[in-house]
Specification:
- The complex is a heterotrimer of chains A (about 290), B (about 325) and C (about 400).
- By secondary structure, chain A is mostly helical.
- Helices cover about 75% and strands about 0% of the residues of chain A.
- Chain A has a two-stranded antiparallel ribbon with strand order 1-2.
- In chain A, β1 and β2 form a beta hairpin.
- In chain A, α1 packs antiparallel against α8 and α2 runs antiparallel to α3.
- Chain A is globular.
- Chain B has one domain.
- In chain B, α2 crosses α11, α11 crosses α12 and α12 packs antiparallel against α13.
- In chain C, α2 crosses α12, α3 runs parallel beside α4 and α12 packs across α13.
- Classes of the chains: A mainly alpha (about 290), B mainly alpha (about 325), C alpha/beta (about 400).
- Chains in contact: A-B, A-C, B-C.
- Chains A and B meet through α3, α4, α10 and α12 of A and α5, α11 and α13 of B.
Chain lengths: ~290, ~325, ~400
């Protein structure tokens, strides 16, 4: 029984870390309908900035996180204006080509600027070490990640479902021409949503760095994981993504405990079954 | 996904012009092949590799360009062909290159059937995810079956005998190159016929409007599945060619990376046209070879820049955009 | 037919080499992509060799041509090797980080009359694929065997083995198991986990449930080792007194700044530590750190490359710059010298390098950096993997 609890805790922690890292992609893919394969690249930029701020500038963890989010968004703005704006509404394969191109460039530049070694983001003392849950111990940082995930989920849900901006965003996505005719500045709405998505990517890159360490190839290494999580949840759905992360986290963790040598089989067979059962995602807004 | 790729290039042209056009196309391939042979006599290994990958990209074009199926797992078909041909030679002594090619084609067809059955269960993004899952399962299966496949160390010990009993596969790679070129030509001609056949038209119809095709009484699913099997044959031949020419097969031939890269090549050249697939492969691999030899450390940035530039300046792919341009110039004159 | 072609090539290449003063060496390695760091170390090792010993042998100048194979890709490796031999006219092939890439290029050697110097790829069988292969790195068997004795000496009897599920991982598992059982210990469970594993918590739970006193682990050097070591500590295994033993891939120097305190006290066995105390190594490290730019990036592939160039220089010396693979390889069989890692010998039988394997402990230096401190030496270790395969 204790083992079951223990695995459940691991699954929850892993799932929430996945959620924090990939939720930004759900926004770009589901709400803006851009297959943004460069999501991981932006998460990586966030990680690098935080690492630089904390290690080389000696800033605190909170400041590093803020700087990472702000810095990544700042870097993303010209990229959005020059490149992404050209592929809104373009065929998906064109988007794939463009965003893979951007990813390659960012990897190359990161490798050049920061070198190929792993970069860590030093944690404050409060997040270091382990917490005792009574029946087992868990890294304090995982608890922090779980809380981050829940906060992000709640904030995003509120933004999209309850605010005026959310209404405009959904209108712009459903029918851009009509929304524009009704006075919604769709370009502005898109730019802001893109910034939010990138900010989330950067946050995920920093918070998830304990599990997925920052290095130049980060951008491609975890691309598949992000893509799978978002699609299984149903792109654009916050509850769907949350559900998918928890479910896939549970499957992955259990598989790795029971039969590590077949972990990969377990995971991808489960993905196939879920996708076939829920072809629109666990809670997809769109087809 | 389906409706967004309306780049039917040859549609509507009169039949006679089509035949002239395709003959000209075949002649072009032969000429370029011969030029390649004489211009780069020391680079035949690379050229052979380009041909093998071109077969894979053609195979993706069949399902993606002509049927609108999104896949990031097509290397499964290629790798199945490569491993089957390799295992036949390394474990069973079936080392005749023609036989190995046949075995590769068959294995590709089977892999096409299996992945088709899975991938065709969804559309759009979920379909992409299914294809990713499929390629990972294939990859992991090959890694697990290491007594057959050599696992991550690669399958070695493949020793193809002389082609037709006459031509050895030597260091210079001449035999492999000419054999590959011949395979490519045969496949290309057959595919030209295929995409213009009623079946090929039906496939295009499925891409444009699946609902209407099923209303007409045709089974969308069976059209797609048949195309998947055919595409498996093509990819399997490409895989077998790799096994024959390099005499070793690695897990990379069943990897997500190869799948994604070859899809990139297809989009680069232009989907929905066989020429686009060829142009994309040659352009991408040639460019990669040049920049990675020029700077082995930082060439990835250059490739990325190329992809971005293509999207910005040739949004229909290199061939697609060029063809549209030619069409417009012609239209202007008429 | 085959003989005729070989003879023609040999004739063509020989005649051209007799006049040429430049001897080309083709180096294939991962210079971009996820393993770019290791390729960078290849280059640093080679540059360091030239910096210390010059790039001339007699009248001949050595020129190195680099070709990139970012990830294991035998087809690409073979195509590039072929291009290097046929087009660039290289007299030596070297580098090779991954086993399949090295294996793929071996059939070329005899036809092209070219020796291959493997600077990293660590599967035992590579040297058996062609008589023209010489290896200056290590094998996973070689580095994983001594740790079994270390574990036993530390009073451990029950060990759980955890390895990444691919060739080298399986090698490590077998090597440790064989050696540990010989010592009288027991491997209670052997887990192979997928290479792509990110979250190791469930694995740590398995360790707890197994009742083992220690873990033997093998993961390829790089990002995943960080997650593994962290998971080991944070899930309370370290506090529960469970020991962690591994070959040095887990604590390569370039990963140490990231691992930091987490790795403190970890014991690993390996053929080279950047901290190795000898005049040869001081000289090498200074040159290699200068070559690589960022001193923190220096790691074990550099020493394999450095010694690889030494072997190639000896080969050129023996053949007088002529292209003669047989003579070249013959000349370095039994060659002994003092490498930065200590005394080494090319075993005349296997053409693999015999060397000391060191037990090291991750230690904090006075300046706050971390290093592998050598605390025990296992002298003149051959490759047990070749014998095990027999």
């Amino acid at each position: 029984m204790q083992t079951v609890f223990s695995i459940a805790v691991d699954a929850l922690a892993y799932g929430m870390v996945l959620f924090v890292i990939s939720i930004g992609l759900s926004v770009t893919m589901g709400l803006m309908r851009v297959v943004n394969l460069a999501h991981g690249a932006f998460a990586m930029i966030g990680g690098y900035i935080a690492s630089y701020a904390a290690r080389d500038l000696g800033l605190g963890y909170a400041a590093a996180v803020l700087l990472a989010v702000a810095g990544t968004v700042l870097i993303a703005i010209p990229i959005e204006r020059l490149l992404y704006r050209r592929i809104y509404g373009a065929p998906e394969l064109t988007q794939v080509l463009m965003t893979i191109g951007i990813t390659f460039c960012i990897i190359g530049i990161a490798n050049f600027v920061f070198g190929p070694t792993l970069k860590t983001i030093p944690l404050p003392d409060t997040l270091r070490g382990s917490a005792d849950l009574g029946f087992r111990s868990i890294a304090t940082h995982r608890i922090f990640a779980i809380i981050c995930g829940l906060l992000v989920a709640a904030a995003l849900w509120f933004l999209i479902e309850k605010t005026a901006f959310g209404i405009k965003l959904r209108a712009a996505v459903d029918n851009a021409a009509m929304a524009a005719a009704l006075g919604v500045r769709t370009e502005f709405v898109y730019a802001v949503s893109f910034a939010v998505a990138i900010g989330l990517a950067a946050l995920g890159g920093v918070v998830g760095a304990e599990l997925l360490p920052v290095e130049p190839y980060y951008a491609l290494r975890y691309m598949v994981t992000f893509l799978v999580v978002v699609s299984v949840g149903g792109a654009g759905s916050i509850p769907g993504a949350l559900l998918a992360c928890l479910l896939l986290g549970a499957i992955d963790t259990t598989g790795r405990y029971l039969a590590p040598e077949y972990g990969e089989f377990f995971f991808y067979l489960a993905v196939i079954i879920i996708v076939i059962l829920f072809p629109r995602g666990l809670a997809g807004r769109f087809k | 996904m389906a409706a967004s790729m309306n780049q039917t290039l040859a549609a509507g042209a009169p039949a006679s012009r089509n035949i002239v056009g395709s003959l000209a196309g075949i002649a072009t391939i032969i000429v370029i092949g011969i030029i390649g042979y004489y211009l780069f006599p020391n680079n035949l290994a690379l050229l052979t590799r380009i041909i093998a990958i071109a077969l894979l990209v053609l195979s993706i074009d069949l399902v993606t360009g002509y049927c609108g199926v999104a896949t990031l797992g097509h290397a499964a078909l290629f790798g199945a062909g490569a491993y089957a041909a390799g295992i036949a030679s390394a474990h069973y002594g079936a080392s005749d290159p023609l036989l190995m090619t046949l075995i590769g084609a068959l294995a590709g067809a089977v892999a096409g059937l299996i992945s088709g059955l899975i991938i065709l269960r969804a559309h759009g993004l979920p379909q992409l995810v299914l294809s990713i899952a499929v390629i990972h399962l294939f990859h992991e299966a090959a890694n697990k079956a290491s007594s057959w496949t050599g696992g991550s160390d690669g399958l070695s010990g493949i020793a193809p005998t002389a082609l037709l009993g006459l031509f050895e596969f030597d260091l210079w790679g001449r035999t492999a190159y000419i054999y590959g070129l011949a395979l490519l030509l045969i496949v290309f001609v057959l595919l030209q016929l295929l995409v213009r056949s009623p079946f090929g038209m039906l496939a295009r119809g499925v891409r444009e409007d699946p609902l209407r095709i099923s209303a007409m009484g045709a089974s969308v699913q069976s059209v797609l599945l048949r195309m998947y099997v055919i595409s498996g044959v093509v990819a399997g031949i490409g895989g077998a060619l790799t096994a024959i020419s390099t005499q070793v097969v690695g897990l990379d031939s069943l990897s997500f990376t190869l799948s994604a890269e070859s899809l990139v090549m297809l989009v680069l050249g232009g989907t929905g046209s066989l020429y686009g697939a060829l142009v994309g492969t040659v352009a991408f691999m040639w460019f990669e070879d040049v920049v990675s030899a020029a700077n082995p450390f930082h060439w990835l940035t250059m490739v990325g820049a190329l992809l971005i530039a293509v999207v910005l300046f040739a949004p229909r792919g290199l061939y697609g955009t060029a063809a549209a341009l030619v069409q417009r110039v012609k239209g202007g004159r008429a | 037919m085959k003989k005729l072609i070989t003879a023609t090539i040999a004739a063509v290449v020989l005649s051209s080499a007799a006049y040429a003063d430049t001897i080309k060496v083709g180096v294939i390695g991962p210079f971009s992509g996820p393993f770019a760091l290791q390729g960078k170390n290849f280059k640093a090792g080679i540059d360091a060799y030239f910096a210390l010993h010059g790039n001339t042998v007699g009248d001949d100048t050595i020129e190195v041509i680099y070709r990139d194979v970012p990830q294991p890709d035998p087809a690409q490796s073979k195509a590039l090797a072929q291009e290097l031999v046929v087009k660039e006219g290289v007299q030596y092939l070297a580098g090779f980080y991954f086993t399949p890439d090295a294996m793929a290029a071996t059939p070329i050697l005899e036809q092209g009359n070219v020796p291959m110097v493997v600077m990293n790829a660590a599967t035992s069988a590579i040297v058996t694929k062609s008589p023209y292969v010489v290896r200056t790195s290590f094998t996973t068997w070689q580095t994983s065997t001594p740790i079994a004795k270390v574990a036993k000496d530390a009073g451990v009897n029950k060990v759980i083995s955890i390895v990444s599920d691919y060739g080298p991982g399986v090698d490590a598992e077998n090597a440790f198991k064989t050696a540990f059982e010989k010592e009288g210990g027991e491997v209670v469970e052997a887990i192979r986990m997928p290479l792509s594993t990110n979250d190791f918590s469930p694995i740590m739970q398995r360790v707890k449930d197994s009742g083992a006193e220690a873990v033997f682990a093998f993961l390829p050097s790089g990002p995943t080792t960080l997650g593994f070591v962290k998971a080991f500590n944070q899930n309370g295994l370290k506090d529960a007194g469970i020991k962690l033993f591994a070959p040095g891939d887990l604590t390569q120097e370039s990963d140490l700044p990231a691992l930091g305190d987490q790795a403190l006290g970890m014991q690993t066995t390996f053929h080279y530590a950047v901290s190795h105390d000898s005049p040869e190594n001081k000289e090498f490290v200074a040159a290699a750190q200068k070559a690589i730019g960022n001193p923190a990036e220096l790691s074990f592939p550099a020493v394999g490359a450095f010694d690889g160039m030494h072997v190639i220089a000896k080969m050129i010396e023996a053949t007088g710059g002529e292209q003669d693979a047989e003579k070249a390889v013959e000349a370095v069989k039994g060659l002994s010298w003092t490498s930065p890692r200590g005394p080494v010998t090319i075993d005349p039988e296997s053409r693999h390098i015999m060397q000391n394997i060191y037990l090291r402990e991750v230690t904090k230096a006075d300046d706050g950096s971390y290093f592998n401190k050598e605390i025990q030496t296992f002298e003149k270790q051959g490759d047990p993997g070749l014998e095990a395969a027999k």
